[in-house]
Each structure stands twice: as C-alpha cells, then as structure tokens.
C-alpha cells in the first residue's frame, strides 16, 4: 500500500473514532506509520484530505461490488449486490460520509463531487448497457441519467437509514423497497 493510501485509510479510521475536529494530523500519521512531514507531501491541510477520502470510499464500494463475480448473472442479481454493498459501506463509514458531504460542499466545489463519481457512473452506465442488450430492462431509458439516478437513490436510501435515528421499518425493508422501486422503473412494460 502506498503512503498516500496509508494516510487516507488511517484518516478514515481516526475520524470514524474521534470525529474530524478532534482528529489531528499527528494521530493520522502515527496510525499510518509514517513521518509527519510525509503527510505534507500529499496534503496541504487536514481538510484537503476530504476529496481523497470521498474518492477512497467510492473505490471501496466499486472494489467490493466488482469482487462479487456477477458476470453472467442477471442485472437484478447485480442490483441486489449493489444495494447490499452500498448499505454495508454506509453503515461502516457513516461518520466519514457525513464529513465528505459537508467538507466538499463547504470547502470544495460540487464539480469535485462529479469528478469523483465519474468512474462510478461510467461503470453503472456500462452495466445498464449490458442489461439493455440482454433484454433485461427497457431500451428507451437515458443510460447516463439512469445510472446517476440509481446510484443516488441507493446511496440516499442507505444514508437516510443509517444517519437518522428514527426508523419505523427494518434495514431489510428499506433494501427491498429500493430494489422493487428500481425494478418497476426499469422493467419492460
């Protein structure tokens, strides 16, 4: 693992434990096992970590989903895995996700978010194109927008569940409902 990745992973761990404000750069580099000066080779400030952390979270999501061998499986099998992994990662990293949203909105542009999400969107577009070509979903969808809608709906559902305190339904009910909603939206009429 590179020093850059060690810094990001260590920052995510410490921030999850202590919160962003109480996390110091010295704690991050100590956990990473590197010299404090090395931090500044990669990042100017603690806040400059936020886009890199957001990018790392999306990389983790993609790695986990891609590690499930869904090649040859139906789009619906893939969608179920996508929902499951998104909910799992959101639960594991909810404090860091909240930080990323607030930090990128305040200190960085929303265009940075779009740049971070671009590989994820592109991968989803490719998956949708395959599903269309196999006749699993309707052809007349806008692939680009639909990819963004699906990712955003799943993430929003997971975040609302894990980042709020009141729940009338179980997490499994939320997963089932988002799956059913997306399936109804994409199935051929």
Please describe what this structure looks like:
With 189 residues, the protein is an all-alpha fold. 75% of the residues lie in helices and 0% in strands. The chain contains 9 helices and no strands. Helix 4 runs parallel beside helix 7, helix 5 (75-92) packs antiparallel against helix 9 and helix 8 packs antiparallel against helix 9 (171-186). The chain is elongated, with a radius of gyration of 18 Å. The N and C termini lie far apart (48 Å).
Number of discrete helical segments: 9
- Secondary structural class: mainly alpha
Biggest β-sheet, characterized?
none
Indicate the percent of residues in helices: over 70%
Low-confidence stretches: none
User: Could you give the order of the helices and strands?
Assistant: HHHHHHHHH
Radius of gyration of CA atoms, rounded to a whole number: 18 Å
Strand content: under 5%
* Average pLDDT, all residues: 87
Number of strands: 0
Taken from the alpha-carbon principal axes, the silhouette is elongated
């Amino acid at each position: 693992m590179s020093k850059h990745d060690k810094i990001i992973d260590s920052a995510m761990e410490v921030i999850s434990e202590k919160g962003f404000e109480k996390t110091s750069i010295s704690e991050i580099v100590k956990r990473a096992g590197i010299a404090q000066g090395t931090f500044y080779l990669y990042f100017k400030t603690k806040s400059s970590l936020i886009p890199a952390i957001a990018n790392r979270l999306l990389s983790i999501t993609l790695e986990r989903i891609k590690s499930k061998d869904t090649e040859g499986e139906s789009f619906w099998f893939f969608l179920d895995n996508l929902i499951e992994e998104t909910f799992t990662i959101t639960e594991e990293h909810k404090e860091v996700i909240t930080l990323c949203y607030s930090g990128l909105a305040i200190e960085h542009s929303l265009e940075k978010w779009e740049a971070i999400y671009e590989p994820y969107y592109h991968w989803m577009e490719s998956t949708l194109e395959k599903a269309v070509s196999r006749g699993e979903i309707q052809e007349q969808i806008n692939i680009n927008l639909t990819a963004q809608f699906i990712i955003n709906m799943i993430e929003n559902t997971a975040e609302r569940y894990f980042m709020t305190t009141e729940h009338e339904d179980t997490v499994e009910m939320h997963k089932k409902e988002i799956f059913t909603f997306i399936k109804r939206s994409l199935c051929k009429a």
